[in-house]
Specification:
By secondary structure, the chain is of the alpha+beta class. 16% of the residues lie in helices and 40% in strands. Strand 19 and strand 20 (258-272) form a beta hairpin. It starts with a strand and ends with a strand. It has helices spanning 96-100, 135-142, 225-244, 315-322, 334-350, and strands spanning 2-3, 10-15, 20-26, 33-34, 36-39, 43-48, 51-56, 61-74, 78-87, 105-111, 117-124, 126-129, 160-163, 167-171, 185-187, 194-198, 203-207, 211-215, 248-253, 258-272, 299-308, 327-332, 357-358, 361-367. It holds the Pfam family HECT_2.
């Protein structure tokens, strides 16, 4: 096979539920050089006269080389083939929020962007999930007598933390020197990032994409911003789609403006995209800039379709989605909506050409 060694890229997506894998060897930009590809149950090996690149699969994944089929060449994209992949069952999704928020523990709230302490040594006696956003309307439908919860919003007490779709509600009355006004932004003192907003004189909403909550005896975990945002939003989407049987979402800012239309295709993907290197080097950069990608592992990811709605794009479709009760809104700070759009765009640009579009939507992966 005549391809350019230095420019050859390999893309592998394993679907856990389907027990299948898609392998793509991308087409070089120019020139040509002999390339041999070897597939074993546990690895992929690409050899050229200049060296080789070996990709070791995760321990829970085994390929079936004899099942290779569907071989085809797509101009401008590369060589495609499909094969069976034996994997363990999909890993159980355990929310990082529930893991971090254990009742009876003293917790510290940090700004995820810079590590500034927002709340220090708060003992949480109750960590409870909030009902769906339309819970009050549903109670009105179910009750044959006046709604006992009318005009009684759920507000946390001093040692409570209520968990919503994409936010935490906490009581900050004892932490503030003066009584805050409702509907005002909460800004990090150090880096000036918007962390949340006040709901009332006692209740503050912190967005999950902006805050890390750790037991006080642990230190602040320095997680790259892009990785953190992807993980939090991916988990929110998977949990919501499972709980509410919905797969379409509008990603909107705290001002109510829609930034992204997002549609979950699947949540069982394992994606590996190693770069070509001289010598038998094992690397697993995944949907990131090459300067950042040296993680040495594959990633579980959700596959999504998306449409940007900035600069008046897709206004008609966004309006249709907003009026559809099967579409769930997910609210984030406006700056984070733009961050997410950039993450999706980078992911899309890193995919083989044939995988970047589906109908009128763009395709991307979000790391779990």
């Amino acid at each position: 096979m005549a391809v350019a060694a230095a420019k050859t890229r390999l893309f592998l997506e394993v679907r856990r539920r389907l027990q299948s894998a898609l392998l793509i060897l991308s087409e070089p930009d120019e020139g040509g050089m002999h390339l041999d590809v070897s597939i074993t149950p546990t690895s992929l090996l690409m050899r050229t006269p200049d060296g080789c690149t070996e990709t070791q699969l995760p321990a829970e994944v085994r390929l079936a080389p004899s099942s290779c089929g569907g071989l085809k060449y797509i101009t401008g994209d590369g060589l495609h083939l499909r094969l069976q992949a034996h994997t363990d069952s999909s890993p159980q999704l355990i929310s990082v929020f529930n893991q971090s928020l254990q009742a009876q523990e003293c917790c510290t709230f940090y700004c995820q962007s810079c590590g500034e302490v927002t709340i220090k040594d708060r003992k949480l006696l109750r960590v409870l999930p909030l009902p769906s956003e339309n819970w009050s309307a549903l109670v009105g439908e179910w009750c044959c007598h006046p709604d006992p919860f009318a005009n009684k919003p759920l507000h946390p007490r001093e040692n409570d933390c209520f968990i919503g779709d994409s936010f935490f509600l906490v009581n900050l009355r004892s932490d503030l020197e003066q009584e805050p006004k409702a509907n005002t932004k909460v800004i990090c003192k150090r880096c000036k990032v918007m962390l949340g907003e006040t709901i009332s004189s006692e209740t503050t909403k912190f967005y999950m994409t902006e805050i890390i909550i750790q037991p006080s005896e642990r230190s602040f975990p320095n997680i790259p911003r892009s990785q953190f945002v992807q993980s939090v939003i991916a988990q929110c989407l998977v949990e919501l789609s499972s709980a509410r049987s919905t797969f379409r979402f509008t990603i909107q800012g705290q001002d109510g403006k829609v930034y992204i239309l997002l549609w979950i295709l699947n949540s069982d993907s394992l994606v590996i995209e190693p770069l070509r290197s001289s010598g038998c080097v094992k690397k697993f950069p995944l949907l990131e800039d090459t300067s950042e990608a040296d993680s040495g592992s594959a990633w579980n990811a959700i596959k999504v379709l998306y449409q940007p709605c900035i600069k008046s794009r897709n206004e008609e479709l966004a309006s249709t989605w907003e009026s559809d009760i099967s579409v769930h809104p997910l609210t984030l700070p406006s700056a984070t909506c733009l961050e997410l759009l950039l993450i999706l765009s980078r992911s899309n640009a890193s995919l083989p050409l044939s995988l970047r579009q589906m109908n009128s939507f763009q395709v991307a992966f979000l790391k779990m």
